[in-house]
Specification:
The structure holds two protein chains of two kinds. By secondary structure, chain A is of the alpha+beta class. Chain A folds into two domains: about 220 residues, P-loop containing nucleotide triphosphate hydrolases (Rossmann fold, 3-Layer(aba) Sandwich); about 110 residues, OB fold (Dihydrolipoamide Acetyltransferase, E2P) (Beta Barrel). Chain A is about 25% helix and about 35% strand. Chain A contains eleven helices and 20 strands. In chain A, the strands form four sheets. Chain A has a six-stranded mixed β-sheet with strand order 6-7-8-3-9-10, with helices on both faces. Chain A has a five-stranded antiparallel β-sheet with strand order 13-12-11-14-20, with no helix packed on it. In chain A, strand 4 and strand 5 form a beta hairpin. In chain A, helix 5 crosses helix 6. The longest helix of chain A is centred in the middle third of the chain and has 18 residues. Chain A starts with a strand and ends with a strand. By secondary structure, chain B is mainly alpha-helical. In chain B, helix 1 packs across helix 12 and helix 3 packs antiparallel against helix 9. Chain B is globular, with a radius of gyration of 24 Å. Classes of the chains: A alpha+beta, B mainly alpha. The interface between A and B is medium-sized, with 28 and 17 residues.
Chain lengths: ~350, ~290
């Protein structure tokens, strides 16, 4: 188990003021799964490659258990990477692929064969040693790639978009496998993804990155309950934002005055966010406003309503049965429960 | 029915101008050569079909000497140019200042004819050439003639140098294209798995580029095996490369030597055809995988 620290890590490309990663500081607890989440080009794969030793940071430091690893080349760093497209060596059998890392370390053939069999058993591919990569399905290739990384007993396991090439059924299977293996081996695991759902289901903590900078580093549920910005909230499916001015525990907005619980954000211009599932359609009382239903979609287990309130368009997720109760064009009250309102700074 | 035939004939008809050139110029030349190689030479009153010319060349010592020299030239040129090409391609794959220009210069001699290269080699490496004079002026040698014989020499060094100059960039461009299509992820992966730079080249890069190396090497060997002008310009008189020996037999005043020349040419053509089939087999297998 290894604790990984990124200390004010930066990577500049070509010109010194173009940063792929800028001033990134993260403390990745040992034995946990951490997701680097963000849109394409936000610097998450660059960060992964810097941890692996494949890219040299322009500034900052990377430590494993408090020791800087910047001077240690990739082959001796102990951070093994599993690439998105698996990259199985096409001219080797599954057994040779899995045993590759041990062969490079000069381990004898008998030990390699034994360990390959053990690790293939762990990823549920016993007996696949002699197959060629092209004879495997996508899910099986992914498991071989994982086995090839695990066999060298890495200090840190780095996964690049581990589920993105798999279909829905295989994703669930692979997610279970990764979580099971991680629980058994307790390897500090860092993975990169652009898919917030993938991050939420796999990670103990998520580092959300935009434009090479860390936005928020927190447990998955915090991104739903306490996003740090409008952008972070939007990335996690937030759609309801109302501008206002905070004065103590009141927020004055064009829709009316909202009473909120005490929050650390300073008084002044803010944005109210509330998740669609937390808005209460047809309920009166504190923080209730008037709105008109513009449209709705029935989704079997629930229904999604679009409500117009002043110049704002809000989305509400309600029980499936509510489609019989509320109708398009109807004017009704919409409640913002105080405990579900979260304030974020206005966007620059 | 007519539409079906029209569709079937469309592609052969469109290819017919090119096919006509190949059939008339090359195939007819080959057929004529094969006929003469089996002794059919009406111009000197020989009409019988016989394999005497083949039997004769396979019993001639100069044929085997020429064949050995030709294989040596092809083998040395191919191996050395492939090694150089891999080094150049691996270097050109890196990111560095001026890469675009260096890559352009590296590819520049692909369209330059061999004859220009031959003149360059003569100018540079002959005993009256630039390097010999430079060594003499620098008092490294006492006379320009003390400069080692690199042209018209028994090891065909001048010929090999010319082929290196020409084919290194050819193979290099192919290897570079293969390297670029593979990307660097495989090497990165190998390194995180514990492979040193040399191990990642030996166990990962080399096997991945091997189909490209093999196919380009076969083409280079086939070319050097059948090429005439460079061994003729830069090679010693005896033994000469096989195509030169065939040419000398062909231009012999004694027309009875012509079947021997044609038998040698057919032999060269057969070797090259076999090599081309191997090349196609490798390419197809590579593309399929």
């Amino acid at each position: 188990m290894t604790q990984v620290n990124l200390l004010q890590l930066s990577k500049a490309y070509s010109s010194a003021d173009t940063y792929a990663v800028h001033n990134l500081t993260l403390e990745i607890a040992s034995g946990q799964i951490t997701a680097l989440l963000g849109p394409s080009g936000c610097g998450k794969t660059t960060t992964l490659k810097m941890i692996a030793g494949l890219l040299r940071p322009t500034q900052g430091d990377i430590t494993f258990d408090g020791q800087s690893v910047l001077g240690i080349p990739a082959e001796r760093r102990g951070a093994v990477m599993v690439f998105q497209n698996y990259l199985l060596f096409p001219y080797m059998s599954v057994g040779e692929n899995v045993g590759f890392g041990l062969k490079m370390r000069g381990v004898d053939q008998q030990t390699i064969r034994r360990k390959v069999a053990e690790i293939l058993d762990l990823v549920k591919l016993s007996g696949f040693e002699d197959r060629r990569p092209k004879q495997l399905s996508g899910g099986q290739q992914q498991r071989v790639a994982l086995a090839r990384a695990l066999i060298v007993e890495p200090k840190v396991l780095l996964l690049d978009e581990p589920l993105s090439n798999l279909d829905a059924h295989l994703r669930d299977e692979m997610r279970e496998l990764i979580l099971n293996i991680q629980r058994q081996l307790r390897i500090t695991t860092i993975f990169v993804t652009h898919d917030q759902e993938e991050a939420v289901v796999l990670a103990d903590k998520i580092a959300l990155m935009f434009d090479g900078e860390l936005q928020q580093f927190d447990r998955p549920n915090a991104f739903y309950k306490r996003p740090i910005s409008v952008r972070a909230a939007r990335f996690f499916g937030g759609v309801n934002f109302v501008d206002g001015v905070k004065r103590g525990e009141r927020v004055e907005t064009p829709l009316g005055i909202f009473h909120v619980n005490r929050q650390e954000i300073p008084d002044g211009p803010v944005v109210i966010t509330i998740r669609p599932e937390n808005l209460k359609l047809g309920e009166e009382g504190e923080n209730a406003i008037q709105g008109r239903i513009r449209s709705h979609v029935y989704l079997g287990t629930h229904a999604r309503f679009k409500v117009e309130a002043g110049q704002w368009h809000l989305e509400v997720v309600a029980e499936a049965s509510s489609v019989e109760q509320f109708h398009d064009g109807e004017i009704l009250s919409l409640k913002f429960p105080r405990e579900n309102i979260w304030l974020v700074p206005t966007e620059k | 029915m007519i539409a079906l035939w029209r569709e079937r004939l469309r592609i052969p008809l469109m290819l017919s101008p090119a096919l006509a050139v190949i059939l008339v110029l090359f195939m007819s030349g080959l057929v004529l050569g094969m006929m003469q190689s089996v002794g059919y030479l009406p111009i000197i009153g020989r009409y019988e079909v016989t394999l005497d010319a083949y039997r004769k060349i396979f019993s001639r010592e100069d044929f085997y000497r020429s064949l050995s020299l030709t294989v040596w030239i092809g083998f040395a040129s191919t191996v050395l140019s492939t090694i150089l090409a891999i080094i150049c391609a691996m270097t050109l794959r890196q990111t560095f200042r001026g890469k675009r220009w260096v890559t352009f210069i590296f590819q520049l001699n692909i369209p330059i004819p061999h004859i220009v290269g031959a003149i360059g080699i003569l100018f540079l490496f002959s005993q009256s050439g630039f390097l010999a004079r430079l060594a003499y002026v620098a008092h490294i040698i006492n006379e320009p003639s003390d400069f080692p014989a690199l042209i018209y020499d028994r090891y065909a060094i001048g010929i090999i140098l010319e082929y290196l100059w020409k084919t290194t960039c050819f193979t290099g461009v192919i290897v570079l294209a293969v390297l670029q299509s593979i990307g660097e992820d495989y090497e990165d992966l190998a390194r995180t798995l514990g492979a040193s730079r040399w191990q990642s080249f030996r166990y990962v890069v080399l096997p991945l580029i091997m189909p490209g190396i093999l196919s380009s090497s076969i083409l280079v060997f086939a070319f050097t095996f059948g090429a005439f002008e460079i061994p003729y310009l830069l090679g010693q008189r005896y033994p000469s490369a096989l195509p030169v020996l065939a040419f000398r037999n062909y231009t012999d005043v004694d027309l009875n030597a012509r079947p021997d020349a044609m038998a040698m040419s057919v032999f060269i053509a057969v070797v090259i055809t076999v090599l081309i089939f191997i090349y196609m087999k490798i390419t197809r297998t590579y593309l399929r995988e």
